[in-house]
Amino acid sequence: MKLTPEAIQAKLHSRTVGRRVVCVESCESTNDLAWRAALEGAPDGTVFFAEEQSKGRGRFGRSWIAPRGKAILCSIVLRPEIEAERVPLLTALGALAAADAVGEEARIRFPNDVMLHGKKIAGTLVEARFISSRPDVFIVGVGLNVNAHPPGMEATSLGPDVSRVAVARALLEAADDWAQRLRGGLREYRKAWRERSFILRKRVRVRQDGKAFSGVVEEVDPVDGLVLRTDSGHPRTVRSEHVEHLEVLG
Known about the structure:
By secondary structure, this protein is of the alpha+beta class. 22% of the residues lie in helices and 33% in strands.
């Protein structure tokens, strides 16, 4: 069943996200569609879905591949009035919303991948632009494998009989919920980020600025990043925007 605005919005319970929904057959990237609309004044909470992307992208220029009509490929326009130091929460918002849509067993591999039973099921990409003197427009892109996933990859999906409409609706409601919490206290974000972590207390290898180092993750935080006890025995803090790649070693 194709995604349509009518089907998604029929039982949608949200305050902002999803008030306007646009569904297209194909595009290069839903993030590109969202940016064009945002720069033309699209309101907070506008969402774009596509059945297929030809140039879906992830962090650091990586591509996102999904079988046509089998995934959730969407981008959300958000215009939150938040302080600059809270900008990393937008990446957490996307990952937490995707994890909530997947279910209780979903975990987040810092900073933006969602895992199910040890395999990747979703990824997020958050982009910001300074239209005024501050980053006041964000695009939260989500790719979530619902009915299938690309062959030959360490990935998984929810199953062939799962309703994409229901998953899309759950994603928008979760994104709306987390968006409402952006200006409040950080406690709920920090609690959920820690509970959903796929890497806490695990040994990982991190690549940053072209260099790799390993250690055990002692703490994760949606704003401050992660704290590693490196192999040399020293603690090291790594912010999400500086992580080029993270590999779980055990």
